[in-house]
Amino acid sequence: MKKNWNRRSYGTGAARVAATALAALLAALTTGAAPAAADPAAEATAAEAAPPGAAFDFGACPAADELPAGADPGTWRCEVMHATGRLRVGGVDEPVERPMTLTFAEGRVDGAYAQVFGEMTAEPIRVGGTPLTLTPRYGGYSDFEADDVRRGELDLTLAVGGPLLPKGCSIGPAASEPIHLVLKDTRPTEVISEDPLVVSFAAADREFTAPRTEGCGRPGGRILDRVLGLPAPAGENSLELDATVAIKPYA
Fold first, then answer.
1. DSSP category for residue 165
2. Residues 152-193: pLDDT tens digits?
3. Of 145, 159, 55, which is closest to residue 104 (Cα–Cα)?
4. Residues with Cβ within 8 Å of residue 158, at least 6 apart in sequence
């Protein structure tokens, strides 16, 4: 005889087991000690003592043969950006103490601006008071041609890490609904060094929306959304960046 697994036949005993599992998952997501981490202030002091540009790695720059057809490498350059700042998403409000790094090439082809993305790397950002982390990752789109309105645009995914969470758990997955940033200057560009060329600026987006988590399983996703305060409309999220950029010509 085929069993009908509806709510009535499921039984109160199984419901109690499910409730216990939910409580355990919620406890795992909201408690736990943070692991020891390197001191960002000490690293920043060491970086300041180094020659301008010494902290920048151009190894992720697109190769010259990866530039668009018709691009003259002599007119192109690779840029490596290090950025710290603050991330606020839903109920999360945490400093970005370890630099995010963006590497890309830019130039012109037939008079039009063009770019080739290289790489984005970032350290996990711990959500205070929990074992959860958010790791910024490239969301599949970027446009760094600055104009009078904005510094640039970037699609971002926040990978969510923590106990019992599956790989692929994220906020704004690149394949479906990445977080779209329109970064606007909050501090104008300042030249730090001319040889090598190193500049700094500050930019922020305080208007983006943050969707629910995806790929976090059931019932983990619903619990996680409650813990993180998601989804969150425009006005409840922000990314503020203090950036330093090293620039290297291809030829």
1. P
2. 999 999 999 998 899 999 999 998 999 999 999 999 999 999
3. 145
4. 89, 134, 135, 136, 137, 170, 171, 172, 179
CA–CA separation, 91 and 135 (whole Å): 16
* pLDDT tens sequence across 228-238: 999 999 999 99
Coil, strand or helix at 8? helix
208 vs 210: CA distance, rounded Å: 7
Question: What pLDDT band is residue 13 in, cutting at 50, 70 and 90?
Answer: very low
Q: Tell me the pairing of strands 238-249 and 213-214.
A: unpaired
Run of H or E including 204: strand 197-205
Of residues 220 and 94, which shows the higher confidence score?
Answer: 94
Give the list of residues 6+ apart from residue 39 with CB closer than 8 angstroms, or none. none
Q: What does the block give as tokens for 243?
A: 């950036």
